[in-house]
Amino acid sequence: MFRTQTSLPIALRIFAGYFKYMSKKGKVLVAMSGGIDSTVTALMLNDQGYEVVGITMKTWDYAGSGGSKKETGCCNVDSFNDARMAAVQHGFPHYILDIRDEFGSFVINNFVEEYLAGRTPNPCVLCNTHIKWRALLKRADALGCDFIATGHYGKIYQHDNGRFVVSKAIDETKDQSYVLWGLQQDLLSRTLLPLAPYKKTEIRQMALDYGYPELAKKSESYEICFVPDNDYRGFLKRRVEGLEEKVNGGNFVDKDGNILGKHKGYPFYTIGQRKGLDIALGKPVFVTKIDPDTNTVTLGEETDLEQNEMIVAKLNWVKYEKITPGIEAITKIRYKDKGSVSNLYPENGKVKVQFYETVKGIAPGQSAVFYEGDDVIGGGIIQSGMLSQ
Known about the structure:
Blueprint: H1 10-18, E1 27-31, H2 36-47, E2 51-58, H3 77-89, E3 94-98, H4 100-116, H5 123-143, E4 147-149, E5 155-158, E6 164-167, H6 185-188, E7 191-192, H7 200-209, H8 213-216, H9 232-239, H10 243-247, E8 251-253, E9 259-262, E10 286-291, E11 296-300, E12 306-317, E13 327-332, E14 340-347, E15 350-360, E16 367-372, E17 375-386
Parallel strand pairs: 1-2, 1-4, 2-3, 4-7, 8-11
Antiparallel strand pairs: 5-6, 8-9, 10-11, 12-15, 12-17, 13-14, 13-16, 14-15, 16-17
Helix pairs in contact: 2-7, 4-5
């Protein structure tokens, strides 16, 4: 049985307090998903002399998802058991935290609302920023923990200006600094990311050294945790009653507004999409614009995706409290983007980003993250892209 999000077991408090004197470096609450990265994080910190308390967060109920695929990833019973077993075997407490209500009312509702608004959301960023870290810090305070820790690949350090900064991990193929741009200073100042100096191959070897060969071979999930079959269109249809009937039969149009054919509904398409359009025009075409008000999806050539400016809102500044207008930054417009050189101009709580060269596929709703070297200057949500005249 999962415990409610507001209660903490008295036995756990007693257990954690009893062993507090053993800690040399402080007490840390570690988010343990049952996967290799978070498990090695907990065991590593335990070996380093921290007083570790493990916590596994249940964010989603797969039984209610309606998907065709069985439970996978970080939120299934096997993962919970794997996390608890590692904690028991290494002598530190572990409990499960039920945050389904918090997660569902914020992350999932936002996910649905963004697609219905014709945008492409990034639920992992939203979850990290508003749910997981806040939930962790709240429970860390209740347990008297000095720190919280996760298995993310990223680095946190304190800059000479006193601010805590997110920076890239050594293993850039696994770096997750992009999804951490929304963490505010009070969260960063209490967060440990011990995997920063290691490559993934080294973490797998550590899992073997700790005696977990199955964990070392465990596959990673890149799906959205509440869409286990990776079919977001099916999820939207199940989540919004009558959606398919309401939006089916809208028009595909070209950039001049000429009708090219019929589509299955604007929420089921994303900017830059080429495959799965089910329309033959004799040449490759891409989704370049989505208009929810008219249920139209604009198609164009790949060059029509090129833009050199965009507006970014809902900002969080990390490295600096505020930026100098025109500051140069490497801007990433999606997780796997290599980044492009740009200048940033703050305007009325937003930022205009001007790229040195055109970039492809700016998608409203996605995160834009600004880097100075390996450091995250800040980030925000893409509001719109544009092509300068």
